[in-house]
Amino acid sequence: MVYPQPRTCIALLSAALVALIAGASRPSAIGQFSPTQRDVARRARFTHVSNVDPEVSNGLAPTPAATEAPAAFDSLTNGFDPQGPPFDTLDDTNVIALRSFNENRFIFEEVERAEEGLGPTYNAQSCRECHQNIVTGGASQVTVQRAGHLSNGDFFDSQGGSLIHSRATDPGAMELLSAKDPIRSFRISPNTLGDGFIEAIANDTLMKISSNQPFFMRGLPVQVAVLEAQSHTRIGRFGWKGQHASLESFAADAYLNEMGITTPTLPTENTSAGNDVSQFDAVPDPEDDGEDVKAFANFMRATKAPPRGAITQAVTAGEQIFNRIGCNTCHVASITTAPAGTIINGGAMTVPAALGNKIIHPYSDFLLHDVGTGDGIPIQPTDEYANTANQIKTAPLWGLRTRNRLMHDGTSFTRDEAILRHGNQAVNSRRQFQNLSSFERAALMAFLNSL
Questions:
Q1: What is the dihedral of CA 160, 161, 165, 170, to 10 degrees?
Q2: Listed range (10-24, 208-222, 283-297) with the worst mean pLDDT
Q3: Do 294 and 398 meet the contact criterion of CB atoms below 8 Å apart?
Q4: Element (H, E) at 33
Q5: Which domain holds residue 381?
């Protein structure tokens, strides 16, 4: 196919966005748009269109009303939704979406089938397939593949988009990587437990964290579109590039790009390496009415944060070392969410009491940094996001003790290996780590293994 140049894409954004938001189904879109135009339309859908609302909060310092966010691996609600009927009593005949935590969890775990819209290209059959460890919603070892190439210094997605699907409902729909796309990377599935608290962090809080960091280590508060709010601009925080700012956007994107299921938010089917696959898909678009996306989002919003392990003397000493060598500059230990009643997500959500004024301990700033491990693939292949190619969101370290595949690509297998991969903006911390005594390293590892 012919790859569109970034500036050409910008010129086509408005018309493509109108067409896509109007919800044109895949059959009509295929007749109307070339593969390149469909790619431009998809890109337009993710283009933010407003200034950033600060969602004013003093979340850097706990307020008198702030309380600790609930944290546990117990599959119980954090209070955002009622618990609901006993989970083991639920089935397809009695589940009601959006009624309770357990029912939304059932939908999050539900296995999709081709006759329901799965595929034709996809990576997983359910949300739980990638997000389950200890309990549903946790991080896993599952990775996805991304690819693209450079032309005159500009990045271009692979022909069907940077995400390469590893499964298909028919051999004829299987997506194969082109030899013309030498930029390749894996990205491992992230934890989603506690994500409701992350969503409830005000934009202003993340921007202040960035401005308070030393210039050399300052993270980028990336601006992205809230899909359910007419692409209103918000600071991203979900995904390895911070490419989503709301859980509904995150869920809609995953439903399409990981399971191949279209919704009113993203109604256009994926291609297979730029080739139309409608012959393998008999389900009209959109394949879901959007209710499942809301159920996925509300399940994540209602999960508790990953809990800490035992806090021993060695763990306390290790955290002091962690702070002393500068790891806490990016791996921020404590953040307070916006007060209950704060309007976020471009007006699409109001922070509820269950998520507001909560102190969380994610050990992340949710900003993008260049620590030398970037995969060369930007959020979108446009001028605005070109500098995100070699940036990665600071990995939240809560729940770290449940993971043995580390970094964004899952190719670091020990804590030491992961730390030693840090360079560029994190080079000073790495050097200080290398100079630690064996006793200090042991204490630092005890701390990390308590998270």
A1: -20
A2: 10-24
A3: no
A4: none
A5: 6-448
Predicted confidence (pLDDT) at residue 425 exceeds the cutoff of 80:
yes
Q: SS3 for 220?
A: strand
Which residues touch 136 (CB under 8 Å, ≥6 apart)?
75, 105, 108, 109, 128
Q: What pLDDT does residue 58 have?
A: 56
Q: How many domains does the chain have?
A: 1
> Looking at residue 103, what DSSP letter applies?
H
pLDDT tens per residue, range 274-317: 999 999 999 999 999 999 999 999 999 999 999 999 999 999 99
Residues 117 and 288: beta-carbon distance below 8 Å:
yes
Residue 25 in domain:
yes
Residue 1, pLDDT above cutoff 50: no
Q: How far apart are CA 294 and CA 302, in angstroms?
A: 12
Residue 1 is assigned to a structural domain of this protein: no
- pTM value is 0.92
pLDDT band at 21 (very low <50, low <70, confident <90, very high): very low
User: Taking Cα atoms as reference points, which of 34, 46, 435, 398 lies closest to residue 190?
Assistant: 398
As given in the structure block, the two tokens for residue 364 are 């992340």
**Residue 67: beta bridge partners?**
358
CA distance 406 to 287: 35
Q: Which has the closest alpha carbon to 272: 378, 184, 169, 389?
A: 169
User: Is residue 31's pLDDT more than 60?
Assistant: no
What's the chain's average pLDDT?
A: 91
Query: Helix 313-324 to helix 438-448 angle, to the nearest 10 degrees?
Result: 100
Question: Residue 339 domain-assigned?
Answer: yes
- Encoded amino acid at 300, one letter: M
Q: Are 108 and 128 in contact (CB under 8 A)?
A: yes
DSSP 190: P
Strand partners, 133: 135
Query: Within a domain: residue 31?
Result: yes
Q: Provide the 10 A C-beta neighbour count for residue 383.
A: 13
Q: Coil, helix or strand for 223?
A: strand
- The predicted-structure confidence for 141-165, as pLDDT tens digits, reads as follows 999 999 999 999 999 999 899 999 9
Q: Fill in the amino acid letter for 376.
A: G
